Structures are given as C-alpha cells and as structure tokens.
Automatic annotation (TrEMBL):
GO biological process: methylation
Transmembrane segments: none
UniProt-listed CDD domains: AdoMet_MTases
Keyword set, alphabetical order: Methyltransferase, Transferase
GO molecular function: S-adenosylmethionine-dependent methyltransferase activity
Presence of the UniProt keyword Methyltransferase in the record: yes
Pfam families named among the record's database cross-references: Methyltransf_11
Domain of life of the organism encoding this protein: Bacteria
Family: Belongs to the methyltransferase superfamily.
The name this protein goes by in its record: Class I SAM-dependent methyltransferase
Record-annotated Methyltransferase type domain positions: 38-126
Length: 245
C-alpha cells in the first residue's frame, strides 16, 4: 500500500466528500452479523465512525499516522497503524471489511489473500469510492482543463481505476452488489479550492514546478463559481462480494 496523503491529512479530513447514508446502510445490511468490522486504509476514520453504531467492535487501519490523528475518538473503534496487505488480525475475525477510496493503491494479490484469511466465511467485503465531480457548465470546463491538461501528467497511474468507477479492479469474490450512488453538495469557493488542494496531482505538480497549479485557473474559476449555483455532484460506486467457497 502506498502513502501519498500524510502531507495534507488535515485538509483531506476537512474537504473530502462523505458517502451518502443509503450507501453506508446498504453495506451494513449486507453483513450477516454485526460483531466485528474492519475499515482498511481508514484515513480520517470517515467510514469507520459510521460503522460504529451498528457493530460491537470496529477496527480501523492505515499506514499514515497523520491521517489516523484526524480520526474521531469513539469508544468501540480501535485505530491501528497497519498496512492493508499484512495485518496481525486473527483468521476469520471480521463480519465486514470495508475499503473506501483506497483499494487502487494496494497490492491486489496480497490484499485479497489477507481478505480471504481474516474475513469470516459468511462475511462481506465492500469496496467503495468516488470519481471526478461535476458542477455548472462554465466551471466544469475550467476544472476539466485543470484536471486533464494542467495536472493531468501528474496523476498517479492508479487514478485510472477511479476514472473507471472501480469496474476494472481485480475482484476475486462472488459479487453480490455493483451499484452507483451520488452525493450532492453546495460549496463555497473556498471549499472548492480546498478540495482541489487535496488532489495528489496538485501536490505532485507543486513539487516539480514549485508553483500551485490552481493559481493558473484561479481567477477564471472564481468568476464562473460565483455566477453558478455552487452545487457539486460526486459519482460514487460500490462493489460488495463474498468469499468463493
């Protein structure tokens, strides 16, 4: 598993979108028992905290100590610094394993081998994520220029899995759900820029060019944003599977 987000963990916690409630509830409902859940690559604990009300115990792992420090303290959630591919959990320990916006960074073979070890025979694995958002037409045009042309060469190749809605990731389980969701926000311009600052490609561009790529579109984007309805729509996707017998 790769760690590209320790450097902006507080911004990641503040500006990244949250998953819709119906998406989380569908995942919870698919777990046959509600004893133990594991949120892998939990980041700031967004998903783990939402599982806490339904499971007796929730474990949440990440390789970034900075990210874990942003997570909320909840009595039945245990945060641990640990890679996704190699854990110290017991065999057949979990009723549910979740991975949100992270599986594209994993070593797939090692991770799925671990899933088959620590997931209960009747448990489920839920993989969820979100893609590039849309907004008003003028802002979309400017944001696409930023995304494709300006920082396009600075995206990690794994980003393609998100662009494809996780439909092309290896998924060696019996799939029981493959579904799309969406999440709508009304953002201030400051929130929009804050989110753009969390892009890995933004950080990579800064490191190479010693300037902020957002500055190249900032003025035009601000004008278009103030004219628009300030709504953003995130496409979200969910794949859930059970172990093959």
């Amino acid at each position: 598993m790769k760690d590209y987000f320790s450097g902006n963990s507080s911004e990641y916690s503040k500006f990244r979108p949250h998953y819709p409630e119906d998406m989380i509830q569908e995942i919870i409902a698919l777990a046959p028992n509600k004893n133990t859940a594991l949120d892998v690559a939990t980041g700031n604990g967004q998903v783990a905290s939402r599982l806490a009300g339904s499971f007796q115990a929730v474990y949440a792992t990440d390789i970034s100590e900075n990210q874990l420090q942003q997570a909320p303290v909840i009595s039945n959630v245990l945060y641990q610094k640990m890679p996704a591919e190699h854990t110290d959990f017991q065999d057949r320990q979990f009723d549910l394993i979740t991975v949100a916006q992270a599986i594209h960074w994993f070593d797939f073979d090692s991770f799925y081998k671990e899933v088959y070890r620590i997931l209960k025979p009747d448990g489920v694995l839920a993989v969820l994520g979100y893609g590039f958002f849309s907004t008003n037409e003028d802002s979309n045009r400017i944001l696409r220029r930023l995304y494709d042309d300006i920082v396009g060469p600075y995206w990690y190749p794994e980003r393609q899995y998100l662009s494809e809605g996780y439909q092309t990731i290896p998924f060696p389980l019996v799939e029981i759900v493959n579904k799309k969701f969406s999440k709508e926000y009304t953002w201030s311009f400051e929130q929009l820029v804050g989110y753009l600052e969390t892009w890995s490609a933004t950080a990579n561009y800064k490191a190479v060019n010693k300037e902020n790529p957002i500055d190249l579109v900032y003025d035009d984007l601000k004008v278009s944003w103030e004219k628009g309805d300030k709504k953003v729509f995130f496409p979200m996707f969910l794949r859930v599977g059970k172990l093959k017998k």
